[in-house]
Fold:
Amino acid sequence: MCGIIGCVGTEDTAYRLVSGLENLEYRGYDSAGIAVRNGQDIRVEKNAGKVTELKHAIVDDVPRGQLGIGHTRWSTHGAPTDENAHPHTGETGEVAVVHNGIIENYDELREELEAEGREFTSETDTEVVPHLIERYQAATEDLTGAFERAVDDIAGSYAIVAVAESEDRILAAREDSPLVVGFDDDATYIASDVPAFLEHTDEVAYLQDGDTAMLSADGLRVTDADGDEIEREREVVEWDAEETGKGQYDHFMHKEIDTQPEAITNALQGRVEDGDVSLENFPPGTFEGVAAVQFVACGTSYHAGLYAARLLNKAGVPANAYRASEYASGDIPATGDTLVVAVTQSGETADTLSALRQAQDMGARTTTVTNVVGSTAAREVETPLYIRAGPEIGVAATKTFSSQVTTLALLAERIIDDVAAGTPREDRASYLEALQRLPDQIGEVLGTSEAERVCRNHVHKEAYFFIGQGVACPVAKEGALKFKEITYEHAEGFAAGELKHGPLALVTPDTVVFAVFTGGERDEKTLNNAKEVQARGADIVAIAPEGVDVSACTDEVLRVPATDADLTSLLTNVQLQLLSYHSADMLNREIDQPRNLAKSVTVE
Ligand code: AGP
Structure:
């Protein structure tokens, strides 16, 4: 977690750092800070709260200098206070450091450093790093050597970026936390993610685990884990800087919900040909010999995995979705004929990466379905499959869920063809046509949705339940996750048939139940489950395709266009996203940056 930026080479360093941090705030927003080197010393400005507060704090006296680092924090060690905000300095203030990750042996390092008489001013694990650098620099006077020795002492996950009073270079190191370098004509950047500097450059190079890097205004030098100097390949990212702005929207989440037609169009681009699936890098036969499929993921991506597992199960392929944090324990067996698919928007989620590595250790075949080119997940599998959703800034995942499910639906068809147990659907051509109609149909939902009006009727209730069967079940769970994440109201998603086995005890007239229908054969059962809650006095809101009669349980319906029952949930999901968004807006919540959360969770 946390967002890091470093920049060397321009006069307006502080401005570039702060605007970079604004674009990284989705990674954490408990506190923010910058350190700028002006040739004589390093000036550190930091405070608890968001980047805006930092911006206000320095507006009348902007730090000047050609070199600096910045950080926006999601707290792991120590409360979100001014003292715990990064950058951290050592005793002398000659070195400043920002860090993303967790230093696992910080307790013992801190004890050791305190025994040497060094004083700490924060509760963070990070503060040991500047002290270590100072300790080694005092012994050798060589900053790079001191930095490398400090990094050697650390165990855990880290992206560390440091500046020193004595040097016109930025030093960096990574292990299990992302760092990407950006190259502009006049400056070099380093950051946790590309949006931090995308307004300046789209030419990047990704650092790899074990790398130590040295950035100057005219470039980059990298040493790999073996200590050998190495070139990290430069590439041009396809994201557009405009995509990382809010445009005319009040919130990124609203923009991202609205841009789902484009996102899905991109996910499908060139991947359906002559009534069949044509997945680049996954030609027919790729999955021959696979006996079972396991999806590993967290949060929203886990729901996308559940959806995909259902699609495979329906075609006879053994498939399951696992929460990555549970899978990583190693209790779930996988062998050489198991295909493990890590589903991850960011490609950096620590739990998902652990699960992926666990699967690889067990000898399973692996791939990832991810949004971020060059992410750790993408680099750790032989062939990644990209969802091509473009940058998603709102902490609540919206368009990336739709793009994940779309991409996974295509991947499922390829797997079904290749594996012995798979029975391809007879109506594949019309199913794929239905998939290609989704962008227009989502556009229709967006243009006609009455979700905002419906929210007004229910916004002050005690609890919100979401129910669905079959492929609507993961979408009900996703609806509940979104709702709780941004409204802070109690929300749960259930398989509709499970209500009567316990959760029904929670249903009162102050409960709202959102019942998700697909237009498929299980709808009758969902209707009966909805009637059961209605009999207990709860309000029912049905989310249903045109033509499905839900009048037996409610008059309040949010409609979506009719389509293949396996795909309807991608449309009903949009209504659920809008329900969450408008409810949160009415409640005045921090929609893009919900409390206690961060978008990219790079700690286990
Ligand atoms: C959902 O809105 C959240 N942002 C969260 O559940 C997210 O999906 C999860 O942390 C996994 O992230 P990833 O897809 O980047 O791996």
